[in-house]
Specification:
InterPro entries: G-Glutamylcylcotransferase. Its EC number is 4.3.2.9. It is a single chain. α1 crosses α8, α5 packs antiparallel against α6 and α9 crosses α11. The longest helix is centred in the C-terminal third of the chain and has 26 residues. The chain contains 11 helices and 9 strands. β3 and β4 form a beta hairpin. It is an alpha+beta fold and 315 residues long. Helix content is 42%, strand content 19%. The protein has a single domain, classed as Roll (Hypothetical upf0131 protein ytfp), CATH 3.10.490.10.
């Protein structure tokens, strides 16, 4: 069953385990590489902080990497996915007064690997942002890096929402792997996470998992079948996925929320050590693999109309 689900979601992409990814996480050279100017700089701030995701599932081997802060952006969990199960994914937004500035990792990658990132990320908009290394780099005070964003106009900002324990732990593990500043790791932990704690919410989780996820698996399997050799799917597949996810949240707002209760913002908070311990028990399953693909698809749905794409000048 595991092989079938993974093949449906990822086609023939290699399945690298968390342990394998950790072994190959070390970049090829120190930052910056000799070809720094020619290579692509890509800023990761969400699940791509984790070697399990970036190297394991996306199969990207960075040439070099550096921890940075980004004064113009802040982390935002406003990208909606699946109520009761995976309410929100990470995004970034322009930083306003009082917001915590974004901290992340810039991976230096080849143009080919950068193309792979864009394909597997499913359709975020690309912007250029100024990054400041957290550790001094000779001759480089700051530099421009590309990162991915879903504009606020296409996110669920009018409704409070939280990431799942699984997803928040994935980001926190990545922050720990890269030894991001302690204050930022504490900031991530303070986000809290959504958990279906009442019997109605748990019933909603069962309903959504059994009724919606098989449909989502089918859509991803279909996408793999009809995609070209570069991983590009026909526009009608993206449109179909868009309508499915829009339908899920329309059903939640009009029916499921009344039946099952809150499926996106029931906040739970524990100390960081407990959060990491609990989260590790939820990772690595077939559902975990599926939810990674859901994240990519959700971003694609919200960013499908590229005519209104943001640019760095709007930040």
């Amino acid at each position: 069953m595991t092989t079938f689900v993974h093949r449906a979601l990822y086609g023939r992409r290699a399945n690298i385990t968390k342990e394998d990814a950790a072994q190959i996480a070390k970049p090829a050279t120190t930052f910056p590489s000799p070809n720094f100017k020619e290579n692509i700089k890509y800023l990761a701030y969400g699940s791509n902080l984790s070697a399990e995701t970036f190297l394991g599932r996306r199969g990207i081997k960075p040439l070099s990497q550096v921890n940075v802060r980004v004064p113009s952006l802040t982390l935002s969990f406003d990208l909606a996915a699946v109520p009761y199960k995976e309410p929100r994914f990470a995004n970034v937004a322009p930083r306003e007064n009082g917001d915590q500035e974004l901290v992340g990792v810039v991976y230096e990658v080849t143009p080919k690997d950068y193309s792979t990132i864009l394909l597997t990320e499913g359709g975020y908009n690309v912007i250029d942002v100024a990054c400041i290394p957290l550790t001094p780099v000779e001759g480089i005070d700051s530099f421009l890096s590309k990162t991915l964003i879903v504009p606020t106009s296409r996110t669920r900002t009018k409704h409070d929402g939280l990431p799942s324990l699984r997803y928040l732990t994935l980001i926190m593990n990545g922050a720990k792997e890269h030894e991001l500043p302690e204050y930022y790791q504490e900031y991530l932990a303070s986000t809290g996470y959504y958990n279906a704690s009442t019997w109605r919410q748990r019933l909603g989780t069962i309903f959504v998992t059994t009724s919606m996820l098989p449909l989502v698996i089918f859509l991803f399997a279909l996408r793999n079948v009809v995609s070209d050799k570069n991983g590009r799917a026909p526009e009608w597949v993206t449109v179909l996925q868009q309508y499915v996810f829009q339908g899920i949240w329309m059903a939640y707002d009009t029916i499921w929320k009344r039946l099952y209760g809150d499926g996106e913002s029931d906040r739970h908070e524990v100390d960081r050590e407990s959060l990491l311990k609990l989260g590790q028990a939820t990772a690595g399953s077939e559902t975990d693999t599926l939810l990674v693909e859901v994240e990519e698809s959700a971003a694609s749905d919200y960013a499908a109309d590229r005519r209104n794409a943001w640019t760095s000048t709007q930040l």
